Amino acid sequence: QVQLVESGGGLVQPGGSLRLSCAASTNIFSIYFLTWYRQAPGKERELVASITSGGSTNYADSVKGRFTISRDNAKKTVYLQMNSLKPEDTAVYYCNLAGGYWGQGTQVTVSS
Questions:
Q1: Could you give the CA distance from residue 75 to residue 91 in angstroms, rounded to a whole number?
Q2: What is the pLDDT of residues 57-86, one digit of tens each?
Q3: DSSP β-bridge partners for residue 95
């Protein structure tokens, strides 16, 4: 059973930055496809960014140029650097490993 623990969420003003982290318990972290999703109140969960085992990345159009996904296989951690945050980025952010494992989520609130 793989466990994922997210951290780094919080309250930030528009235009600010946050970095989310997701630490995994698996020892074969490096082979996995990793994804960040988010879910805003009253909306469906949506894909934000993904990264392959080889480091190739993909982003939702709404976050391209503002968010960066990265991974540190030695630390078994995936990151989401979020810059130029907007109120519409407010959501609970979840990491996902290989499509099957989810973290508990971390709240991001962008408000003045």
A1: 26
A2: 999 999 999 999 999 999 999 999 999 999
A3: 36
Exposure b/e, 65-99, CB count within 10 A at least 16 = b: eebbbebeeeebbbbbebeebeeebbbbbbbbbee
Taking 3-state DSSP, the helix, strand and coil percentages for the chain, each rounded to the nearest 5, stand at 5, 50, 45
Tokens of 93: 């952010």
**Residue 72 and residue 65 in contact, taking contact as beta carbons nearer than 8 Å:** no
Please provide the size of the chain in residues: 112
Cα–Cα dist 20/49, whole Å: 12
Residues 36-50 pLDDT 10s? 999 999 999 999 999
Token duo for residue 66: 């503002």
